[in-house]
Every structure is written in structure tokens, then in C-alpha cells.
UniProtKB/TrEMBL annotation, chain A:
Keywords assigned: Cell membrane, Membrane, Transmembrane, Transmembrane helix, Transport
GO cellular component terms attached to this protein's record: plasma membrane
Organism per entry: Lysinibacillus xylanilyticus
InterPro entries: ABC_BtuC-like (IPR037294), ABC_transptr_permease_BtuC (IPR000522)
Family: Belongs to the binding-protein-dependent transport system permease family. FecCD subfamily.
Molecular function terms from GO: transmembrane transporter activity
Record-given protein name: ABC transporter permease
TrEMBL record, chain B:
GO MF entry, a single one: ATP binding
Pfam families (alphabetical): ABC_tran
Protein name in the entry: ABC transporter
PANTHER family tied to this protein: ABC TRANSPORTER ATP-BINDING PROTEIN (PTHR42794:SF2), HEMIN IMPORT ATP-BINDING PROTEIN HMUV (PTHR42794)
Keyword vocabulary terms for this entry: ATP-binding, Nucleotide-binding, Transport
Organism of derivation: Lysinibacillus xylanilyticus
Annotated ranges, domain ABC transporter: 3-235
Length: 352, 257
């Protein structure tokens, strides 16, 4: 079996970038009010600071609001969350050298769920207003990751197996807490809101709340991409990594920090959207091989495309109501993944 | 002295695996470590390339204490070919060999033309250039071993440590691999299972038994019927190989005694 050449992968990156732009345009056009692609782009480009292209408005005020205030931030958030979860998944699979790991094994999603549930059902942090939910989710995620992290340390070193097991154990305890709150509440509406939140939604997207995810994603992606060599070496195992010059303790710490920061921030704005972090990296490795120099950018792009379309489907399929996006990612993503599993020879990190 | 281990003692839960072991290796020497199963060969090497840290003793590489240097500095001077090399994810041979350049690269640095030349040279030297686009998992055992040696070559280290490199290889590939390693202009320390291979290739041999050095010297000094009986518990006769003029060991099964 061969992996594709660098030239082919660069071409693939170019094509995927094009697909992201086209998907973005189409996803903005889709909806109860249909809008032409020209207007979509004229409105977007007119928002470049100082309007260097000199675009004059020939669209209505309501089009402006629908495009710029509602649909564009939502699609941009889909790109950020899709790309972010996909690269977190790729990174965590290198960290624990295990192909069934997803970024939530560090306890992020269950921790965030406890925070979100307490806001929705108990009104915690109500003084924070509309930011209470994101704040509580991020706080919950952070506390969960810290607990998992300290449980995973043995004599000052991080044990990968302990990290996995501690992640599972802590997640179970936190899920129990969420379920307890759900059991005890008398509000039917609250229960539905919590379930909606846990399955993820991009409906809360606004320009103000996508700035932090944007900055964090950019920083985390850049640092991971700079460490692509070291991620590759982690996949070879601890001994190879150390003898090829990786300071493994420091690097593991860095990865845990980056992954939990990124997934924590994403979960805080979009809820715990599943499957992307697990499946996208595998699909990518089937296409380009395991070299993280390529796995990271291709994962980011495919994750973005996948989530743009999942969100578009979530908006349309039972309109005027919205489907939680987690249902779409699982329903569409998994059959495709299973089909690829059957079709290709691919090593899921098993010994031959 | 290029590579020195001084009085290493290593224990796991109070059980001593290594007891006061010292190793001295000179420049360009080819040094073998032999000993029965469980005698501590791998543990000794792991202590020497600092995957394990001894409770007592020190290891010096080019007169510097290896436990006081960064992994990166060590990796420029010392290449390791471990015993098992499971590669669980798909990498091409070229990607794997290129990983040998890691200790020479800074974070921002891309692979330069020079790196590519070194990688290609290393693959050529190890006889795996024709496999460069294949994935590692699709290779045979002998090919895999040579790819890992190519990666070690790409590190351009002056010292190479190998842990039973000929394991699981057929005789042709064993000799090919050992010839390759011997032809390199570097210092080599290797654990070996096959005593005739050790006799053929090593300048000096350390014999380990129960975590202690039982003997040290040239193959002719060390590989004697008495020592083989004492350390390995086998009867053997040793004569001179008609072609190589190295010691040749003939084991004698109990039923012929």
C-alpha cells in the first residue's frame, strides 16, 4: 500500500479549501429566505474594515441582518468547531496512541455538561446573563480536565493508560451528577434544553462569541502544526520518541493543555458535538496516511466541511424546528465511516 | 573513551536487575553484549540510552553525563535501534527515515534539500531505497529492521545502540544487517542472542549473567567452553572458523555427551 505523494496532498488541500468556500456560500444561501451567492459575497466583503473594495449597498436591510448577523457567524462557527474538534481528535489520538480516543476522553464534555445543566436547571451564574452558559460549561470542562490530569500522574509522570481510565471514570461520575440534576428537576422545558445542549447546536452563534474560539483555534493549530514531527514520533511510541530527542513529559503536558483548552472553548459555545473528533482523523488517515504534517490541515478542512453541512441539514430537515447537530453528525458520519472501513485496508493502530 | 557506564545499579521493586555494571567503549569499537535470557542485556542498554534511569551509577557519552543533557542533544550523538519496533499507524518508509532528522531540526524548520539527501543516502546505505514509498506495515521483518537502521543512520549519530537486531530475521538477512552495521564508520554497542554472530562481528564482548559482568574481552578471550558452561549452562566446543578465522561455537546436545 502506498500513501499519496506530497504534490497530490497539496492539491487536495487546495481543493478542500475551495470546497470550504463553496460550502460556506451555499450554507449561507440555504434557509427560509433564499439569497443569491453574489449578494452573499458582496455583503461579506463589504464588512472588510474600511471597505477597500468600495462595495456599495444594493441589498435590503433585512438581507443584511440575515446574512451578516445570523447566517454568516453561524457558518463560521461551524467551520471553527468542525476544524477544532477534528484537530483535537487527531492530537489526542497521537497523545494516547490509541485510535478509539476522542478529545472528550479528557473529561471536557462531561465536565461542561455539569456546568451547562446547572445553569439551565438551577440558574447558576445568572449574574453573567447570556454568558452564564458558556462560562459554566468552560469552568466545568476545566475542573474535569484538572481532576483527570492529576489522577493520571504517577510519580510526576503522566501515564497514558491512567489518563484514559481516569478520563472514563471522571466522565462517569460527572454524567451521574448531570443525570441527578435532570432527575430531580420539575421543569420539563429545562430537561429538553439540557438534552438539546448536550447534543450540540450552533444556533447561539454571534460575532461576539466566536472571537475567542477563532483565536484559540488559530493558536492551537499553529502550535500543533509546528510540532507535527513530534506528534509523528509519539505515534511510534515512547521509546522512539525519546531516543529521537523529544522531551516527552513536557510535550505530553503541552498537548493536554492545548487539547483541553481548545475543546473546552468549543464545547462552551456549541455544546458537546460528538463523533467529529473521533471519526474525521481516521477518514483523513485513510486518505493521506499518518504524517501529521498533512493529517492536521486535512483534518481541519474536512472537519469544517463536514460540520458546515451537518449544520445546514440540522437547520432544514425539520424546519421550522432545529435538529440537534449531534444527531446529524452521528447519523451521517458513522455510516460513511463504516463504508470506508469496509472498503479500505487501513491499520487502526493494531499490531500486525 | 566514547561511551562509558560506571557502576550502574538498577532495581525494580528491590529486585536488582543490574548490579554494579561498568562498560567502556572506545571510538569505532564494535562491542557486543551477550548473556542468557533475563541476564539484564536490554535493561543495561535502556539505562545507557536513558529510557531507564539507574538508582546508582552514571553514564557518560563523549565525557558528558547523559542524564544531565536534553533528549535532543543526546539524540544527535546516539542512535537507537530498539528490539521491537511496532509502528501502529501508517507511515511511508521515507517518512519514517526522515524522522531520524528530528533532533537536528528546530521547531519552525522545514526539511531542507540537505535533509532529503541525507534521508536518501541513509535509505540507500541500508538497502531500502526501493521501498521508500511503501508503507511500513506492508514490509517483511527484515525490511522493517533495515528501515529502522536507515532511520538511525539519518540521525548521523556517532554512536549506535542496537538491541538484538537480528531477532526474527532469516540467516541471509542476519548477515546482511550485521555486515551493514559493521561497515559503518561509527561506534556500535549491540546486545546479541546468537553467539556465533557475536564472535564474527564484535571487537569486544561483555558477558552478562544475573545482572553482573561475568566476563569481558575479545571473542577468543571470552567464548570458551568453560564460560559457555558457566554462564549459558551448555556444553560446547570452540574452534576457529576456517574462513573468517573467528571463533566458531559448536553446541553439544546432552544426548551426545
Amino acid at each position: 500500500m502506498k500513501n499519496p505523494t506530497t504534490r497530490k496532498i497539496n492539491l487536495l488541500l487546495l481543493v478542500l479549501t475551495g470546497v470550504v468556500l463553496i460550502s460556506l456560500t451555499l450554507a449561507i444561501m440555504v434557509g427560509s429566505v433564499s439569497i443569491t451567492p453574489t449578494i452573499v459575497w458582496r455583503i461579506i466583503l463589504s464588512h472588510i474594515p474600511f471597505n477597500p473594495l468600495g462595495i456599495t449597498s444594493d441589498w435590503s436591510r433585512s438581507q443584511e441582518i440575515i446574512i451578516w448577523q445570523i447566517r454568516t457567524p453561524r457558518v463560521v462557527l461551524a467551520i471553527l468547531v468542525g476544524a477544532g474538534l477534528a484537530i483535537s481528535g487527531a492530537a489526542i489520538q497521537a497523545l494516547v496512541r490509541n485510535s478509539i480516543a476522542d478529545p472528550y476522553i479528557l473529561g471536557v464534555s462531561s465536565g461542561a455538561s455539569v456546568g451547562a445543566t446547572s445553569v439551565i436547571l438551577l440558574g447558576t451564574f445568572s449574574f453573567l446573563g447570556m454568558y452564564a452558559l458558556s462560562f459554566a460549561a468552560f469552568l466545568g470542562a476545566t475542573i474535569a480536565v484538572l481532576i483527570v490530569f492529576f489522577l493520571a500522574r504517577v510519580e510526576g509522570r503522566i501515564s497514558v493508560v491512567r489518563l484514559l481510565l481516569a478520563g472514563i471514570a471522571v466522565s462517569l461520575v460527572l454524567s451521574a451528577m448531570t443525570n441527578f440534576m435532570l432527575m430531580m428537576t420539575k421543569e420539563e422545558g429545562g430537561i429538553k434544553a439540557v438534552i438539546y445542549w448536550m447534543m450540540g447546536s450552533l444556533a447561539g452563534a454571534k460575532w461576539v462569541n466566536i472571537m475567542i474560539p477563532f483565536v484559540v483555534l488559530t493558536v492551537v493549530y499553529t502550535i500543533l502544526r509546528l510540532h507535527a514531527r513530534h506528534l509523528n514520533l509519539l505515534l511510534l511510541g515512547e521509546e522512539s520518541a525519546v531516543t529521537l530527542g523529544v522531551n516527552i513529559e513536557k510535550f505530553r503536558l503541552l498537548l493536554i493543555l492545548l487539547i483541553s483548552l481548545l475543546t473546552g472553548v468549543l464545547v462552551a459555545v456549541s455544546g458537546a458535538i460528538g463523533f467529529i473528533g473521533l471519526i474525521i482523523p481516521h477518514i483523513v488517515r485513510m486518505i493521506v496516511g499518518s504524517n501529521y504534517k498533512f493529517v492536521l490541515p486535512v483534518s481541519a478542512l474536512i472537519g469544517a466541511i463536514f460540520l458546515i453541512w451537518a449544520d445546514a441539514v440540522a437547520r432544514i430537515v425539520i424546519a421550522p424546528e432545529e435538529m440537534p447537530i449531534g444527531i446529524i453528525t452521528a447519523l451521517c458520519g458513522c455510516p460513511f465511516f463504516i463504508w470506508m472501513l469496509r472498503k479500505q485496508m487501513y491499520s487502526f493502530g493494531e499490531e500486525n | 573513551m566514547v561511551y562509558v557506564a560506571k557502576n550502574l545499579t538498577f532495581a525494580v521493586q528491590q529486585v536488582k536487575i543490574l548490579n554494579n555494571v561498568s562498560i567502556h567503549i572506545q571510538e569505532r569499537e564494535f562491542v557486543g553484549i551477550i548473556g542468557p535470557n533475563g541476564s539484564g542485556k536490554s535493561t543495561l542498554l535502556k539505562n545507557m540510552y536513558r529510557i531507564l534511569q539507574p538508582q546508582e551509577g552514571e553514564v557518560f557519552l563523549f565525557n558528558e553525563n547523559i542524564y544531565k543533557q536534553s533528549s535532543k542533544v543526546i539524540a544527535k550523538q546516539l542512535a537507537v535501534v530498539g528490539q521491537e519496533t511496532p509502528v501502529l499507524f501508517e507511515f511511508t518508509v521515507k517518512d519514517l527515515v526522515a524522522m531520524g532528522r528530528t533532533p537536528h531540526k528546530r521547531l519552525m524548520e522545514v526539511d531542507t534539500k540537505e535533509d532529503l539527501i541525507i534521508v536518501e543516502e541513509s535509505m540507500k546505505q541500508a538497502g531500502v531505497l526501493h521501498l521508500s514509498e511503501r508503507t511500513f506495515s506492508s514490509l517483511s521483518g527484515g525490511e522493517k529492521k533495515r528501515v529502522i537502521v536507515a532511520r538511525a543512520l539519518a540521525q548521523q549519530a556517532k554512536v549506535m545502540v542496537l538491541d538484538e537486531p537480528t531477532n526474527h530475521l532469516d540467516i541471509q538477512h542476519q548477515l546482511q544487517l550485521m555486515d551493514l552495521i559493521q561497515s559503518l564508520p561509527i561506534t556500535v554497542i549491540t546486545a546479541l542472542h546468537d553467539l556465533n554472530i557475536a564472535a564474527t562481528y564484535c571487537d569486544k564482548i561483555y558477558v552478562l549473567k544475573d545482572g553482573e559482568i561475568a566476563a569481558y574481552g575479545t571473542p577468543f578471550d571470552v567464548l570458551t567452553p568453560t564460560l559457555l558452561q558457566k554462564v549459558f549452562g551448555v556444553h560446547a566446543e570452540v574452534s576457529v572458523h576456517p574462513v573468517t578465522k573467528k571463533p566458531q561455537i559448536f553446541y553439544i546436545s546432552e544426548q551426545f555427551l
